[in-house]
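Justification of resources, computational component.

The compute hours requested in this renewal are based largely on the per-chain cost of generating structure records like the one below. Each record pairs the submitted sequence with a full C-alpha cell output. That output is archived, and it is also reused by downstream analysis tasks.
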Amino acid sequence: MNKLYICIILLSSALAFGSCKGEAEQEQQVNADQPETNVALTPNIPYTLLKQYPHKTDAYTQGLQYVDGYMYECTGHYGESYVYKYELETGKILEEYKLDDKYFGEGLTVMGDKIYVITWREKTGLILDKKTFKLTGTFALETSEGWGLTNDSTHLVYSDGTPYLYFLDPATLKQVKRIEVRDQYGAVSNINELEYINGYIYANQYETDTILKIDPKTGRVIARSDLRNIRTQAGIPPRSYNEDMPEVLNGIAYDKENNRIFVTGKNWPKILEIKLDN
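The structure output for this chain reads:
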C-alpha cells in the first residue's frame, strides 16, 4: 500500500470523526436549550355542585364571608359600594352600609366584633362595628390597590392583584409579613378574593374560573380547582362583558361549623354551595 493511499484513508477517518463529534455537540446543545418537561403539575381539586341560593343580581361581589349563620358581602363600583349582612337561604338583607361615593369597595372580612373592608385605589381600609354596622375607623394600605381580604384569626390578609399577600396586625393595622404566591412555573398574579379554610388560603384568580389553594406559610399553590363548567351547571348565563350582567367568578365563603363552601360571582343571580377538598 503506497503512502498516498494511506494518507487518503487517514484524512477521511479524521473528517468523519470530526463530523460525528460536531453533530453530537450540536445535538447536546439543542437538548440543553429545550425546557424541562418533567415539572410536577399542581394537583387539581374536583368540585361538586351541591345547592343553590339566591343572590342580588346587581351585587358586584368583591368580598364574601359566612359568619354565625349569616352571609356578609362587600360590593364594588363608585357610588354603588355596599356592605351587606343577609340570610343565605332567602337573600333577605338584615343590615347594610353604603360606602362613601369616593370609595370602590373591595375585600371584606369579619374578625371579632369588627368588619374590615378595603378599597380599590384609595389606599384605605374601613372598620365597621359588626353589631351596629356603623363606621368606627379607617386605616391606610401600604399598596397602591386593595383586592381581596380574609383573616387567619391572628392577622388580616389581603391581596392587591400582584403575586403578593400581605399580613397585617389587627392591633396596629401595620404590615408584619408578605409572601409571594408561586406555582410550578413561577409567580402567580391576579390573586383576588380570599377565604381562609382549614389552614389554607383559597383565592379566586381574577379573569379565570380557577380557585387556588395556597399555603400561607410559603405562598406555594398546592392545588387548584377549575370551575369553568359551573355556570352552565347552575344555569348562569355565560360572561358577556356587560357589567350589568353576570360577570367573573368572584367570592368564596366558608361555613366552618357545617364544613360548607360557597362561591358566587359579580352580578350572579345565585350563590352556589360546592364540595372541594373540605
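The first helix runs from residue 3 to 33. The mean pLDDT is 89.
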